[in-house]
Amino acid sequence: MTGVTDRKKLLAAMANGQSLEWDVIVIGGGITGAGVLREASRRGYRALLLEQQDFSWGTSSRSSKMVHGGLRYLAAGDLKLTKESVRERQRLLKEAPGLVDRIAFYFTFRKGLFPGRWAMAVILAIYDFLAGIRDHSYCSNSQLVERFPGLEQTNLKGASRYTDAMVDDSRLVMRVLQESIDDGAKALNYTKVAKLLIENDKVSGVVIDALHNATDDATNNAGTIELRAPVVVNATGAWADRLRNQVNSEQRIRPLRGSHIIFPSVLCPVTEVMTFLHQDDRRGVYIYPWEGTTVLGTTDLDHSDDLDCEASISNPEVDYLLAGFNRQFPNNPLSRADILSTWAGVRPVIGAERGKNPSKERRDHAVWSDNGLITVSGGKLTTFRLIALDALNAAAPSLPNPAPFTDDRVFVAPAISTTELLPNNPQWAQRLLGRYGSRAQAIIAQSGAGELAWLGETQFCLAECRWAIQHEAVEHLDDLLLRRTRLGLCLPNGGKPVYPALQVMFASERGWDNSCWQAEVARYEAIWNRYYSLPKNPQ
Ligand SMILES: Cc1cc2nc3c(=O)[nH]c(=O)nc-3n(C[C@H](O)[C@H](O)[C@H](O)COP(=O)(O)OP(=O)(O)OC[C@H]3O[C@@H](n4cnc5c(N)ncnc54)[C@H](O)[C@@H]3O)c2cc1C
Predict the structure, then answer these.
(1) Is 170 near ligand 1, meaning CB less than 6 Å away?
(2) Residue 350, by phi and psi: left (phi above 0), alpha (psi -120 to 50) or beta?
(3) Above pLDDT 90, what percent of the chain?
(4) Which atom of ligand 1 is nearest to the CA of 193?
(5) pLDDT-derived band of residue 221, with 50, 70 and 90 as boundaries?
């Protein structure tokens, strides 16, 4: 069973003048680009996706990982966005159990803070109505404290319980890409679009920088390559203005950073999500379980750092999140020393109204068509399918008639059941089927001795690492530890405990010798220390 596109082979073919013509070229390997690729490929278009770094390297590996309707949008009166989001949530829960899973949220009430119990009951009744479910209730202080031990009870007025869903965002991108590739699409990571190809004032393709980040021989001497397509979709998220500005000088993206901190779950063991209003600005902040850890997030502020560098948490954000947590759990306070790792992402918010409260900016997506370039940005993970359909609708006049299709599911149902896959652990089987579809069977079948054991407190195993190295376009150690798996974020010391096993695996699967391994470790640790750890020099 094959995996994602063979990067070396396709780039070498391109360098030799083959595979230069496509129906649709998608720029950006986040969830938006993956969604467009999926919908294009099912319509029979020859579709190619190009990502400058690794798949999901941008915002799509750095979200809060919720598949949700967004109560905030409903409270702001945006019924359309909420309805679309909760309907997509329901669809994803049905199509990809194990990847997208329902989880309970507890929105806590404190005396004097809005919304209170009754306002929230109305909001949740509408929320559930839009989703076609009924799944909310009131939770008393004592029930709440059972679930979130140590929660400060002064002024506590219980909570509203409702349900949304969680997803591993990077794995969502990989699964959507895999489905597209199974339908005939191609996807290349570490392939940057250097510029748009413009002929007679119309975008007719892209120029790729084949040497950008290349670590292999396939692209040596290839330099730049021109690829042509009647439709070029710019799905570069927070970077969207850059390429679009080649055909339209408008600046529409307001990059807003959101950061999270991760700490060992033993310090605040939770199995569900708690939301509290932060004392400084009354923004909702979440505490939630993730891969054996507990996560606290997020922040929301203008991001003026260089977009070519990975986003990272700042000292004031660390202080803000810790202060919020410590107000809720004053008897189990957290300090910087407790933090396992951090991550930050940049929301590609359409607005560009500097000065407006970031949390009041709309989170809808937008599609622009300029001289043959379709730019799509903004929105959420949750609504990626609808965003993709909007982008393809805008592109339709330039495309041939689509091939007919009857099944509009994003994910093909696995050909095997959970009990057939792992009779003794159907729950984990569900997780593997959700993440890998039918390929889960091959992952289990080819695993070496001991490779199915969970690593640390996570539910990742070495068999998945082997699979990713073989079939999921892993170019660097950081691709494996930060995106294909989350071992680098959820294990102590950035995942050092798994280095020995991975060194052996990369040597046998990729032929990495010791110096190559050491260079990859150095690269990974530099990235981890700079962007996924604590910022240096706290004030
Ligand atoms: C902190 C935070 C929390 C969030 N939480 C949630 C949540 O819980 N639920 C939810 O539904 N949504 C959430 N979101 C929103 C969601 O994560 C984003 O809307 C979504 O990931 C954007 O995906 P994208 O594909 O448009 O952008 P990205 O994922 O950023 O992908 C764009 C890609 O384009 C690539 N690129 C840029 N320029 C080029 C080029 N020249 N050539 C090739 N490639 C290029 C970049 O490298 C990048 O990988 C959150 C966002 C943030 C920041």
Answers:
(1) no
(2) beta
(3) 90
(4) 42
(5) low
Whether the pLDDT of residue 172 is over 70: the answer is: yes
CATH number of the domain located at residue range(s) 99-166+253-360 in this protein: 3.30.9.10
Looking at the predicted structure, is the pLDDT value of residue 419 above 70? yes
Q: Do 523 and 301 touch, CB atoms closer than 8 A?
A: no
Class of domain 7-59+170-252+362-398: alpha beta
Beta bridge partners of 166: 66, 101
Which residue's C-alpha comes closest to atom 31 of ligand 1?
Answer: 30
Among candidate residues 394, 206, 238, 383, the one with its CA nearest the CA of residue 309? 238
Handedness of CA 449, 453, 456, 461 (dihedral sign): positive
Let me know: does 343 contact 260? Beta carbons within 8 Å.
Answer: yes
In 3D space, the residue among 3, 9, 8, 10 whose CA is nearest the CA of residue 227 turns out to be 10
Phi, psi of 240 (to 5 degrees): -60, -35
What lies within 8 Å, CB to CB, of 248 at 6+ separation is 368, 370, 371
Beta strands in 269-324 (DSSP E): 273-277, 284-290, 293-297, 301-302
Terminal Cα-to-Cα distance of the chain (whole angstroms): 53
Using the mean position of ligand 1's atoms as its centre, give its distance from the Cα of residue 359 in Å.
Answer: 17
C-alpha span between 27 and 33 (Å, rounded): 7
Is the CB of 32 within 6 Å of ligand 1? yes
What pLDDT sits at residue 222? Answer: 62
The residue whose CA is least distant from atom 2 of ligand 1 is 63
Alpha carbon 35 to its chain's center: 12
Q: For residue 378, how far is its CA from the centre of ligand 1 (angstroms)?
A: 8
Per-residue confidence (pLDDT) for residue 78, from 0 to 100 = 86
pTM recorded for the entire structure: 0.97
Same topology for domains 7-59+170-252+362-398 and 99-166+253-360, yes or no?
A: no
Looking from the CA of 311 toward its CB, the CA atoms found within 13 Å total 30
Ligand 1 near 30 CB (within 6 A): yes
Domain boundaries, given as residue ranges, for the chain: 7-59+170-252+362-398, 99-166+253-360, 446-532
C-alpha 58 – ligand 1 centre gap (Å): 5
Tokens 């006049």 correspond to what residue?
397
Determine which residue's CA is closest to atom 25 belonging to ligand 1: 30
Residues 6+ apart with CB under 8 A from 496: none
Instruction: Give the span between the Cα atoms of 39 and 320, in whole angstroms.
Output: 40
- Closest ligand 1 atom, CA of 35? 25
pLDDT greater than 80 at residue 539: no
Distances in whole angstroms, Cα of residue 463 to Cα of each of 93, 357, 446, 507: 25, 45, 8, 15
Pocket test for ligand 1, best of 212, 381, 384 (most atoms within 8 A of CB): 381
pLDDT digits (tens, 9 = 90+) for 294-311: 999 999 999 999 999 999
Q: What is the pLDDT of residue 353?
A: 58
* Ligand 1 site, residue 381, Cβ cutoff 6 A: yes
Residue range 172-185: average pLDDT?
A: 98
Mean pLDDT of the chain: 94
